[in-house]
């Protein structure tokens, strides 16, 4: 039985999501066991130390060293948890990051702003154009420098589209305050911090059209920061992305020619 099934958490759509739900289950079972244990101890104390049996307090307190031994045991258990589980699991995640770079990931810059999200794709060349914050003209403007050759085929969309079955690397950033890009069906979220681009990655394993929310209270329009996400079949995604890239290149070609004269 898994508590995560009763908590109203939506279906998982990413490769790693099942492990997150498993952790949620483990933590809930552990907390239930702790809650029951502490409640029994509380009930025991109420009965064992009731006023009619112990009208006077003991001024000596505990005289043995049990509590010191218990504290040492807690330190050892926590060291085992940290060194034996947390560090190796973190290492596995960071090692996979190197592997992900080789798996032909879809890359998108995600820009949070008050109050919405903008998506910047690198286009067919796979390279994001240079970003210059001084070129930003509105709060949703990603500030792309179109004098950069790498920017010529870049395109911007109001909806995030990514392929199924390939990793998606989203570089999360913000134009103003701290936001948080939170995709609940993918079991992943990342703070959007102005001046920083922080990559987050996951592999969608089913197609879905869903919404993405802002997970960080960021101002009066925070509740309206709902983004749209579409996970498409890989072939449909490539057709769409190449088409958008070609259109962007065509629309900028005359400008690029004038600039080079
Ligand atoms: Cu926000």
TrEMBL record:
| Alphabetical keyword list | Copper, Electron transport, Membrane, Metal-binding, Translocase, Transmembrane, Transmembrane helix, Transport
| Recorded topology in the membrane | Multi-pass membrane protein
Q: Which family does it belong to?
A: Belongs to the cytochrome c oxidase subunit 2 family.
Q: Gene3D superfamilies from the entry?
A: 1.10.287.90, Cupredoxins - blue copper proteins (2.60.40.420)
GO BP, one example?
ATP synthesis coupled electron transport
Gene Ontology CC annotations of this record: membrane
- Pfam families documented for this protein: COX2
Q: Which residues form the Cytochrome oxidase subunit II copper A binding domain?
A: 103-243
Its Enzyme Commission number(s) read: 7.1.1.9
What PROSITE patterns does the database record attribute to this sequence?
COX2, COX2_CUA
Q: Where are the transmembrane segments?
A: 26-47, 68-90
Cellular localisation? Membrane
According to UniProt, the name of this protein is cytochrome-c oxidase
**GO MF term set:** copper ion binding; cytochrome-c oxidase activity
């Amino acid at each position: 039985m898994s508590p995560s099934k009763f908590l109203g958490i939506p279906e998982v759509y990413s490769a790693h999501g099942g492990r997150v739900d498993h952790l949620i289950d483990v933590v809930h079972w552990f907390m239930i066991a702790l809650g029951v244990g502490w409640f029994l101890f509380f009930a025991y104390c109420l009965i064992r130390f009731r006023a009619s049996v112990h009208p006077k307090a003991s001024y000596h307190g505990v005289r043995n060293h049990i509590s010191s031994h218990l504290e040492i045991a807690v330190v050892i258990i926590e060291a085992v948890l940290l060194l034996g589980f947390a560090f190796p699991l973190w290492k596995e995640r960071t090692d996979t990051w190197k592997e992900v770079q080789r798996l032909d990931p879809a890359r998108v810059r995600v820009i949070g702003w008050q109050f919405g999200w903008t998506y910047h794709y690198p286009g067919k060349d796979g390279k994001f154009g240079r970003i210059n914050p001084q070129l930003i003209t509105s709060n949703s403007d990603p500030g792309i420098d179109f004098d950069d050759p790498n920017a010529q085929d870049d395109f911007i969309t109001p909806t995030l589209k990514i392929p199924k079955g390939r990793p998606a690397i989203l570089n999360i950033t913000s134009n103003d305050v701290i936001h948080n890009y939170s995709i609940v069906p993918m079991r992943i979220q990342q703070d959007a911090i102005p001046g920083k681009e922080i990559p987050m990655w996951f592999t969608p394993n089913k197609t879905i059209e869903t919404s993405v929310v802002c997970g960080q209270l960021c101002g009066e329009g925070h509740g309206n920061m709902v983004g749209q996400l579409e996970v498409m079949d890989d072939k449909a995604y490539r057709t769409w992305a190449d088409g958008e890239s070609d259109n962007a290149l065509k629309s900028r070609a005359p400008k690029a020619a004038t600039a080079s004269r």
